[in-house]
Amino acid sequence: MNGVTCPRVGLPEAISRVMEALKTVHSASISSLARATGLDRRTVSKAIDLLLQIQEGLRNQEITKIRIGRSYLIQLREHAEKARDLFSAVRRRLQRKGE
């Protein structure tokens, strides 16, 4: 690390800094992101790896948060399930209009 020490930063803060830095450039290397964010290269790499895992997981799934009274219902649903529910709702509306 060239004798320069970076202060320890939690992963949520590191992810936030990396995301902000990525908004300003088309593409970047781990080293350039480390310089732009003031983070250690290993921390930047861990943040990128976690972001890629989250992206892959959400490609086929969706997280929803629905308020019910004073509580929240959190659901993780497959996109296929969401599409099936949407088509069912449309079908019910069309059937009601045809009655």
Question: How would you describe this structure to a colleague?
Answer:
The protein has 99 residues and is α+β, with helices and mostly antiparallel strands. The chain has 2 domains: 49 residues; 38 residues. The chain is built from 4 helices and 2 strands, in the order H-H-H-E-E-H. A two-stranded antiparallel ribbon has the order 1-2. A hairpin with a 2-residue loop joins strand 1 and strand 2. The longest helix is centred in the last third of the chain and has 20 residues. The protein is elongated and about 70 Å long. The model has no long low-confidence stretch (mean pLDDT 85).
Quick structural summary:
This protein has 99 residues and is α+β, with helices and mostly antiparallel strands. The protein contains 4 helices and 2 strands, in the order H-H-H-E-E-H.
CA(first)-CA(last) distance: 72 Å
Q: What does the average pLDDT come to?
A: 85
Q: How many structural domains?
A: 2
| Count, helices | 4
Provide the gyration radius in Å: 21 Å
Main pleated-sheet profile: 2 strands, antiparallel
Given the C-alpha coordinates, what overall shape results? elongated
**Low-confidence runs of at least 5 consecutive residues:** none
**Would you tell me the structural class of the helices and strands?**
alpha+beta
Helix content: 55-70%
Task: Give the oligomeric state of the chains in this entry, treating copies of one chain as homo and distinct chains as hetero.
Answer: single chain
Q: How do the strands line up in the largest sheet?
A: 1-2
- Tell me the β content: 15-25%
Q: What letter string, H or E per element, gives the SSE order?
A: HHHEEH
Number of strands: 2
